[in-house]
Amino acid sequence: MLVPRLTDETEEVLIGLRIFRGEALPLVGMNTYIGGLFSYVLAGAFALFGPRPETGRMVALVFGTLGVASTYLLGRSVGGAGSRGRLIGLLASVLLAGSAADILVTSRLAYSNSLTPFFTTTGLWLLHRAVRRRSGPSLAASGLVLGLALQTHIAALVVWPGLAAYVLLQWRVLPLRWLPVAIGLGVVAIANVIAFNIIHPGMTLQEIVFRSGDYGGAPSAGP
After folding, report:
1. Within a domain: residue 197?
2. pLDDT (tens digit per residue) in 199-216
3. Number of compact structural domains in the chain
4. In the chain, which stretches have pLDDT less than 70?
5. Is residue 208 part of a domain?
6. What is the span of the domain harbouring residue 161?
7. Is 73 contained in some domain?
8. Which residues contact 176 (CB under 8 A, 6 or more apart)?
């Protein structure tokens, strides 16, 4: 709780506290390009453990730890069957577990974005598993989980061009009849963000453009 010190992560935690108290039911988080998933997970944690100041960082710790497990699963899937796959999975998970960024940021700061690596890595594992095993349920689950990753932060979009290329390259072995299910579940996973932008047209895009210029220190060139 002392390193690093608490900063604006407290704003995200307070949204979860308001949900826990029945004072709010938001569709999005502190920023309009972040869904409400993290806020509701926090509210559930407050319901289980009480409104304690360390609860937000404990949630980040849990998902950071789960991210090590999902990294193992992805590495094992990429490595193939047998001891080779297990070795690659173990190596990948050990590298992540020893990563300073994962220890001090992803597994510690109570940001919605701290959940993005877990959901993204799990979605990648499910997609790879769908190709390797020609599994329709795995493909459908990957759509849902990657949608949840997008809900944690718009930055999850950076893997989508690679995902699209991978699906196009592997279309012969993909259970294509499950692809509409995967897309549908992905849409369901971000339905609250879509609903917010129907109620407030274009607000998420406007904030993305604003933040792009604000964080970059120069006027944004656009979306």
Report:
1. no
2. 999 899 888 888 877 776
3. 1
4. 216-223
5. no
6. 9-192
7. yes
8. none
Domain-located, residue 4? no
- Tokens coding 33: 């390009």
- The token duo for 166 is 């991978």
The residue type of 115 is L
Task: Supply the pLDDT for residue 216.
Answer: 64
Q: Can you give the pLDDT at residue 219?
A: 60
pLDDT at residue number 218: 57
